[in-house]
Amino acid sequence: MQAETSTRGAVPDLAYPPRKKSRLAQLARELGKNKHYYILMSPYMIIFFLFTVIPVVFSLALSFFYFNMLEFPRFVGWQNYARLFLNDDVFMIALKNTLMFAVVTGPVSYFACFLFAWIINELSPKVRAVMTLIFYAPSISGNVFFIWLIVFSGDSYGYLNGFLIKYGFMLEPIQWLTNERYILAIVIIVQLWLSLGTSFLAFIAGLQTIDRSLIEAGTVDGIKNRWQELWFITLPSMRPQLMFGAVLQITGAFAVAEISIALAGFPSVNYAAHTVVTHLMDFGTIRFEMGYASAIATVLFGLMIGTNMLTQKLLRKVGD
């Protein structure tokens, strides 16, 4: 009887295993373990949360209201978005121009940044430093793109008009920056010229950090030329730099505004160089329709996020 009783008493201990620690307890333990890292990160995270996360959330919420900076916000639901896509013809022109900017300047400037970085990386250190400065200088020279106003000036003193007239390609100067046939192409060219900036430096840095022993091991494993070395060793080794450059190029391609305003005016002729950002500036800083401007900003934010996710998916296949 005593043995049976002890056996019965032992069954509950085997039937109920010790409880696992809750996720909250594990999280608290991890926070305590790595508290020094979080303390060092906290200044940046606080600033990022206050000046990036909160404004984005407020903008998303405000897009469902009518708000003119004078009256209290009035909830209108999806009315701003319905007006944006169904009644705002200028926005559709701006959206088309912005997508054209993104499709042309984004990939072209991205591949150009990497190609030039790859070529310059093969040069000697002194020549590499000089060439890096030459390619990077336009992006840090402030309003250096105003030189293109002289190139595309509409009178005969403009560099392009003067060249074409001098060599008999035309008899009269062309108003490049007031002709809707040429405005968008000119802004795209200038944007491409300015695009060799931070992404270019990131690619240079990534190429400099590649372990040379990987290249030697790849040669032993059967890599026969530079293209295979690029695909199977170089690109996979610099995925963080590739992702960083992609984010910068996506942001720059969708956020074109300053160059368009400086070259083509605000607004441009028949909105030929009008972009989503200039449309946002029109309603946000001139008309003060903050709810409608927030809807425009939300659409632009969605376009950037979607493009970023697609780019990440493509970059994960590099080297496969």
Distance between the termini: 69 Å
Radius of gyration: 28 Å
Instruction: Determine the fraction of residues in helical runs and give it as a percent range.
Output: over 70%
Major sheet size, sense and barrel closure: 2 strands, antiparallel
Total number of beta strands:
2
Content-based structural category:
mainly alpha
Query: What best-fitting shape do the alpha-carbon axes yield?
Result: flat
Mean pLDDT: 82
Number of discrete helical segments: 16
Biggest sheet strand line-up: 1-2
Order of helices and strands: HHHEEHHHHHHHHHHHHH
Strand content: under 5%
Give the low-confidence spans. Answer: 1-14
Protein name: Carbohydrate ABC transporter permease
Keywords: Cell membrane, Membrane, Transmembrane, Transmembrane helix, Transport
Subcellular location: Cell membrane
InterPro entries: ABC_transporter_permease (IPR051393), MetI-like (IPR000515), MetI-like_sf (IPR035906)
